[in-house]
Amino acid sequence: MSTSDQPIHPSAPPVVPRWEWRTFGEFEDGPGPLAQLRTAPTADSDEMYILSMYGDASVKVRFGLLDFKVLQRVNGTGLQLWVPTMKAGFPLDQHAVAAAFAALGVPWPATTPSHHDLQGFMEELVGSRHDLRVVEPHESRHRSVLNDCMVELTDVTVGGRSIQTVAVESPDPELVTERVLRLGLDGRRNI
């Protein structure tokens, strides 16, 4: 299903595919390239990610919206081009449920109600499947725009375990590569 087939709310920003680079690990405090990220305001959120055995789409529930993007391609340097596909509020209609299941690479259940609230969607459609898993992280993000790239340093906690991640995103892959170098993270693996 193409992004042009998706319903778009009049106030929604335009869909812009973006190149992304992300790494996980521990990052030193103190002066250095990441210091300016640590001083950016913190945005906390509790989320639900739906993981699939068959697909690599990013499907999550954040701030009461089903939000997903799909990986379109990976370039020669390993940067990933992600396309935001849909943000839909609950209750979900059949179209939103079908689009989410397509992104996850799993068949849509044959018999479903015409609308799904969050609990019904997670319990009846997702929780009943062996090929999907729900993970509920708490995320504390420090976001900034540096040289036309969105850059974030995030503390992620899942099941009592914590890790940090740094992400760099832009519609321009050269800007992403340059920003990763300037942050001193070019020796880390893009995950």
What does this structure look like?
The protein is an alpha+beta fold. The chain folds into two domains: 87 residues; 88 residues, no CATH class. The protein has four helices and twelve strands. Strands 2-10-11-12-1-6-5-4-3-9 form a ten-stranded antiparallel sheet. A two-stranded antiparallel sheet has the order 7-8. The N terminus is likely disordered.
Question: Care to give the gist of this entry?
Answer:
By secondary structure, the protein is α+β, with helices and mostly antiparallel strands. 18% of the residues lie in helices and 42% in strands.
**Shape descriptor:** globular
Task: Classify the oligomer.
Answer: single chain
Structural class, judged by helices and strands?
alpha+beta
Strand content: 35-45%
Q: Outline the low-pLDDT stretches.
A: 1-9
**Helical amount:** 10-25%
Number of distinct beta strands: 12
Radius of gyration from the CA trace? 18 Å
Span of the ends, CA to CA:
26 Å
| SSE series | EHEEEEEEHEHEEEEH
- Biggest sheet: strands, sense, closure? 10 strands, antiparallel
Q: What number is the mean pLDDT?
A: 87
- Number of helices, where a helix is a run of at least 4 consecutive DSSP H or I residues: 4
